[in-house]
Amino acid sequence: MLIKIPKKSELSENQVTQESVYLQRRQLLKGMGFIGAGTLLSSALSSKAHGGVFDLFKEKEKPVFTRKDLSYSGQAGAENFPEKLTPEGKVISHNNFYEFGAQKHQPAELAQGFKVNPWQLKISGEVDKPITLDYDQLFSTFSLEERIYRLRCVEAWSMVIPWVGFPLAKLLKMAQPNSRAKYVAFETLHDPEQMPGQSSRRLGGGIAYPYVEGLRIDEAMNPLTLMSVGLYGKTLPPQNGAPIRLVVPWKYGFKSIKSIVGIKLLEKEPPTTWNLLAPHEYGFYANVNPGVAHPRWSQASERRITTGGLLARNRIETLMFNGYGEEVADLYKGMDLRKFY
Fold this sequence. Notes:
This protein is α+β, with helices and mostly antiparallel strands. It is about 15% helix and about 20% strand. A hairpin with a 2-residue loop joins strand 8 and strand 9. It contains ten helices and 13 strands.
């Protein structure tokens, strides 16, 4: 069952992110000298926002996705706010993807020439069978399914998105991790010619590229952890991480690394981009936790992006583990989640 696609709509930053939160996060980068007036571009969404990669499912026989509504795991409080899909136009026009600019509208504007084919995703490290998948294999190696997940940004806004993809566990099992594999490291494509934020300190927020992320192997093997190749029944647009990205729904959005070219299994905890940039603000685990505030703003509530306009604030309480505690809480049993934030 596929979902009827809403019409596109534009979204300004102040409609979805509390202004003080957004400005404080930008102030961190600005204070380091990485963001200036030169990063400002027109906020008009390009008519090519979907990108050429959106044609993949049309070029082949349309797959029938198994649909799983996993927007909540049944935790108390879920009934307090009805789950509605975030309109597609807002999902593809409001993006954090600093490789294409640190402002929310820039990725949809600057990523439209991004080439995703040919592509290679390499799985290496502490595995018995290293593998490499090309562009076509990303879509044909595993059965695809549609999963409706909540996406919670560290900036205190959230979306509900129907992703298309396959469990990361299936990919890792294919490579046969050995007994030394304790962590999984991820790496985004490094291509400054295609990704202007990687070649401009101001445009790209001063991040040391390529973007890197990591999970413990038990987190990576959890059934909820998804490798996504599409959303809304279509292949991913470039601004959302084409051709393949990670989705970890119980963690803040910056953990869900985009445009992945490398997955490496390791014995020791890998470095992660935001932890390297600001370790006192962004930890390795990044579990959604309303009881642990960001140093510069509260995480107790969030602004849900729906169909409303400027006055539709949709402020709701944030749930522990973003509402997926029944599936993931046991992963952190006995851990001090204030220390391991």
